[in-house]
């Protein structure tokens, strides 16, 4: 009569089969590990894999202080009659599309001013690898809250219907502004936490506290500002931002409220570094933000924290 082995059979044949299966599984795991190691070895550097938004060559102090970056740029005018929610403006953008899409920044002028007052920032930032939109506001006397809304309307136009929309990564956006446009920059950051960077330039706003802001913010003030004195504007703006936020305060030495209205190397240098670090997630630019810059000929004071690693 044929005997049936119990479920706990320990016959030599079954033991040999179990050892064979174990060896097969072991070989498979080892082969998978070896394959993974080979793939890892063949992949580009870890930074490139973690930083798909990196644009342009490795930066140097000279490259971020230069009047132009590595990208050739073009520009296009946007009529106020063709848009809603803001007053039109000028878009500056890298002409090359070989690197993929770029982050974008919208910049607002200040009280009674036009886009021409901040136009120098357009080609300077665009040549570093951004799409930049310097805008006019609906009226030159619009207040900061309105300017904040207009910055966001301009971003929505830029990414939604503009002629350069296919060049832009709509998840990587920032805002800047001068004077009331700087106050509007804080308003925009408060209203849209998904923004990646905000830079108010000698900002003015009756609201002094911004604990709601979740966007990495570089506040730039001027030691000689009598219109928006740092003691009653830029400093309280900065101090009120959450301590957990990536934030910095740069006070320009020998500067006035209107210093941001003309080409300025210090403003450009740290704005580029901030936008690159937080819009492009490009840690190559951390060297210009950490350790914190020291006071000197053009900087009266610099406060902040080193950028948090994600």
TrEMBL record:
Pfam families: PETase. Residues 1-22, 50-69 are annotated as: Disordered. It is found in: Secreted. Keywords: Disulfide bond, Hydrolase, Secreted, Signal. Residues 47-307 form the PET hydrolase/cutinase-like domain. Belongs to the AB hydrolase superfamily. This is Alpha/beta hydrolase. The lineage of its organism: Bacteria, Bacillati, Actinomycetota, Actinomycetes, Kitasatosporales.
């Amino acid at each position: 009569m044929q005997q049936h082995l119990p479920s706990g059979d320990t016959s030599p044949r079954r033991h040999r089969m179990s050892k064979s299966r174990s060896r097969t599984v072991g070989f498979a795991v080892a082969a998978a590990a070896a394959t993974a190691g080979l793939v890892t070895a063949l992949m580009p550097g870890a930074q490139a894999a973690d930083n798909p938004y990196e644009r342009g060559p490795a930066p140097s102090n000279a490259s971020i202080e230069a009047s132009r970056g590595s990208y050739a740029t073009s520009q296009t005018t946007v009529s106020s009659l063709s848009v809603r929610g803001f007053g039109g403006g000028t878009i500056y953008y890298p002409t090359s599309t070989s690197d993929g899409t770029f982050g974008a920044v919208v910049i607002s002028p200040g009280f009674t001013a036009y886009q021409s007052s901040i136009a120098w920032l357009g080609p300077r930032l665009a040549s570093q690898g951004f799409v930049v939109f310097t805008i006019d506001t609906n009226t030159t006397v619009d207040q900061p809250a309105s300017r904040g809304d207009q910055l966001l309307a301009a971003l929505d136009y830029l990414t939604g219907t503009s002629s350069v929309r296919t060049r832009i990564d709509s998840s990587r956006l920032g805002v800047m502004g001068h004077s009331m446009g700087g106050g509007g920059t804080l308003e925009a950051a408060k209203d849209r936490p998904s923004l990646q960077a905000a830079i108010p330039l000698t900002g003015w706003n009756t609201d002094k506290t911004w604990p709601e802001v979740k966007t990495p913010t570089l506040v730039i003030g001027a030691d000689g500002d009598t219109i928006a004195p740092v003691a009653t504007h830029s400093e309280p703006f900065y101090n009120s931002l959450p301590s957990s936020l990536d934030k910095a305060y740069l006070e320009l030495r020998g500067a006035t409220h209107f210093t941001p209205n003309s080409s300025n190397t210090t403003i450009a240098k740290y704005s580029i570094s901030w936008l690159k670090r937080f819009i492009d997630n490009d840690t190559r630019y951390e060297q210009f933000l950490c350790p914190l810059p020291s006071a000197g000929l053009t900087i009266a004071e610099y406060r902040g924290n080193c950028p948090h690693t994600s």
